[in-house]
Amino acid sequence: MYYIVGLGNPGEKYSNTRHNVGWLALDYFLVENQLPALVSSKQFSGEVTEGVVAGGEVKVLYPDTYMNNSGSAVVKFVPKDDISKLIVVHDDIDLPFGEVKIGKGKGAGGNNGVQSIIDKLGTKEFVRVRVGIAPKSIWTGKVKRPQGGGPLERFVLKPFGLTEKGDLPEVYKKVQLALETIILDGAKVAMNRVNQTK
Questions:
Q1: pTM > 0.90
Q2: In Å, what is the CA distance from 148 to each residue of 66, 120, 138, 193?
Q3: Is the per-residue pLDDT at 198 higher than 60?
Q4: Is 55 left (phi over 0), alpha (psi -120 to 50) or beta?
Q5: Which of 3, 4, 19, 168 is an active site residue?
Q6: Can you say how many angstroms the Cα of residue 115 is from the centroid of all Cα atoms in its chain?
Q7: Can you tell me whether residue 29 is helix, strand or coil?
């Protein structure tokens, strides 16, 4: 069983923001894999569904705890013995928009949701599917990371731009491929395959 958690904030005002790209990508993943509709769960502090993807059993959680407290839902959702089977899908301000990377066992990279999960689980040893949201300079093509504090917090809570919105379906397909490859072949193989592509 794989436990897939998307990070985001509940509520209409956050629904299409950069910080919620983990939820948006999972919405696409659920539809493409014909998983049952999400059901609200007080037990797991969020919305859940489960089914079979790429021949493997999966349980999916959208925590409703707000991003910064995601760990309090995840710790109830994933059995202690199965933390290595946890996959967290989240936005990453250090990756350019459009890129998707798989990682495991690293720090939170400034993402408060991931940090909350690390703190509550007491370990970093789970898989992350990182979805890039950083803007690129039109002159240099390099990532422009907003400054920490106010500007960074404002940026991640902004909606995607028009051009980005048009490109989001391709991003969601990359996340779907990443998740299905992890389920089918394991995280190591998935990293080698997915992390090579831009």
A1: yes
A2: 20, 24, 22, 32
A3: no
A4: left
A5: 19
A6: 13
A7: helix
- The C-alpha torsion from 174 through 115 and 118 to 85, rounded to 10°, is -10
Of the candidates 133, 145, 130, the residue with the CA atom closest to the CA atom of residue 97: 133
> In Å, how far are 103, 115, 193 from 119, measured between CA atoms?
18, 6, 30
Q: Nearest-CA neighbor of 70 among 32, 29, 126, 27?
A: 126
Average pLDDT over residues 35-61: 97
Catalytic annotation present for 90: no
Q: What is the DSSP string of 51-81?
A: EEETTEEEEEEEE-S-GGGHHHHHHHHS-GG
Domains of the chain with CATH codes: 2-194 (3.40.50.1470)
Q: At what angle do helices 162-185 and 187-194 cross, to 10 degrees?
A: 140
- What confidence tens digit (pLDDT) does each residue in 141-173 have? 666 666 666 677 788 888 998 889 999 999 999
User: Measured between alpha carbons, how far is 169 from 147 in angstroms, rounded to an integer?
Assistant: 28
Q: How far apart are CA 59 and CA 61, in angstroms?
A: 7
